[in-house]
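pasting for the record
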Amino acid sequence: MKKQITILIAFFLAFSIGASAQNKHSRTTKYPTYKGLVMAGYQGWFIQKDGKMYPNASSIRIDLWPDMSEYKQTYPTGLKYADGTTATFFSATDKSTIDLHFKWMKEYGIDGVFMQRFFNYARPGTQQRKIFSKMFSDALESASKYERAIAVEYDLSGLKATGEDCSMIIEDWKYLVDSLK
């Protein structure tokens, strides 16, 4: 019985924090519900390191090579096209890439995205948190510009099997609300 009361109190506190966080910076929202919206996932996996993407064929993690003609900023890879020119790729950390993706969403009738936030990348003090928070901030800006919905989705696959609970998600949510508004 005591465990059930503790869980109930924890749920109530989490709900209270979430409810108050929703109104902390704005009393209104364009999207009070996501019912009926066409939403996509947005992970931001393709990140360049040291100005380069995919230094060799063994590091490629995609099924199809995208048309790069509309991207303002592209990054060289270690691969070559059939004509011998260096193949380029986009980086999900590039603000112009994010803006283009949200522009396409508006053009093709996608109402918004579930912005994936990996559990490991939400850990305070990590470089990944800094990178993914900047990406999220740029996505919020583009979502507003193109009137697209955005929601946070937490991927818990980085949760440690022993002794780690999800309380860090509450702290990360507070960070997003307070720091990124």
